Amino acid sequence: MEEAKKEAEAIRREAELKGREAAVQALKEAEGQAKQEKKDLQNLEKRLLDRESTLSQRDSQIEKRDNDSKRREQSIKQREQNLEEKAKEYDELVDQTRVQLEQTASLTRDEARQQLVQSMVDEAKHEAAKRIRVIEQEAKEDADRQAKKVISIAIERLAGEFVAERTVSVVHLPSDDMKGRIIGREGRNIRALEAATGVDLIIDDTPEAVVVSCHNPIRREIAKRALDRLLVDGRIHPGRIEEVVRKAEDAVEDSIKEAGQKAVFEVGIHGVHPEIVKLVGMLQYRYSYAQNVLTHSIECAFICGAMAAELGLNVKQARRAGLLHDIGKALTHEVEGSHAVIGADIARKYGESAKVVNAIAAHHEEVKAETILAPLVDAADALSGARPGARREMLESYVQRLEELERISMSFKGVQKCFAVQAGREVRIVVQPEMIGDDRAGMLAQEVARKIEDEMTYPGQIKVTVIREMRTSEYAR
After folding, report:
1. Taking CA 364 as the corner, what is the angle to CA 402 and CA 424, rounded to the nearest 5 degrees?
2. Domain 395-467 maps to which CATH number in 3.40.50.300, 3.50.50.60, 3.40.50.720, 3.30.300.30?
3. DSSP letter string over 11-67?
4. Where are the domains of the chain?
5. Average pLDDT over residues 19-38
6. What is the pLDDT of residues 326-377, one digit of tens each?
7. Were 388 and a residue from 265, 267, 276, 423 both cysteine, which residue would form a disulfide, CB within 3.0 to 4.6 Å?
């Protein structure tokens, strides 16, 4: 019994401990749940406050918009009333004016209507005439665009390389000892070489070099080749010099024929007389404004052929005229007259067609153009010779030309700035808008162009662009 009592007491105490622990645990859980619910309530209260502030802001905005709408409605009503009053005033003024006009002009309403109709008819005719002029101008501009398109298609299909003009040739020596041998005893060797070739030999302090100077490029080439052969051979004396010069002349003549045949083959024409082929080959030693004339002629042939193809003309005939248009330059120093007329005479002499002869003679407008081929050759010649990069200039003359362009442009009143661009092919003028109007800008461009034509010398053409710009700025605050 005692043991049972002790066991029952132990069980009771254990149950009390477990009950206390369960009560403590339940209390903790209740406290945590209460804290969480309190936190949720606080969050909910905060969201409600935020919503309440947002709603109050919206209410204020809506109220503000309502007030603005009311003010606008009042303003619109006021304007409508003003417009109605002004309309009434205008009607009264129109009636008064009509009565006064009838009294002054002694015209009835029908007669005035007839005069008004007549004036409207006259005005319509005037507007029609203006419209016709606009249509004609648009047609001219469209034709100009088509012409530029044909030219641009022709020029963009060709890329040429050009060499600089040279009036001297440099012959490199294996050593400076060769200078004495070239001069010879008492200068007999150098005198014999100059007499045989017609050039001037310049032997100075330049190391291992002799300069061959002559304005005739063919003679300069013969002398250069002869001197190269003499240096390789080593036997330099008057008798040997004459022999070598003759061989050099034959070699240069062969190279001229080869160059002519190569040019004719490259352009793709046939049936050219051998003498004309020779003249074409001679153009490789001629330069115009530092542009090789043979290269220029080949380029003209391709440009002319491309334009002829765009216009549906005979391409081979156009290339033929373009290649031969400057053959007169090969004989300009021998025959008097313009190279265009000389070239036409040569072409006529050796059996070229009348169209080609006229195109050669008329490509500088010295002879009247008789066929469409002549203006094509003229345009191709201008494109090849006048485009930037085709003809090189000395740096000093180039800079001087740009400065002269800007000086001429700045000499006019109302010019603010000017810029020479496109390698001197264009000058852009910025004017003061308060001094130069739109109509005056066109006249200024013409005046500047005329002054450039009168005071300057330049290849090709120079574009004058007048820029008038009005800028107005304001700030939104």
Report:
1. 10
2. 3.30.300.30
3. HHHHHHHHHHHHHHHHHHHHHHHHHHHHHHHHHHHHHHHHHHHHHHHHHHHHHHHHH
4. 1-76, 168-257, 268-386, 395-467
5. 89
6. 888 887 555 677 788 888 888 888 888 899 899 988 887 778 888 888 889 8
7. 423
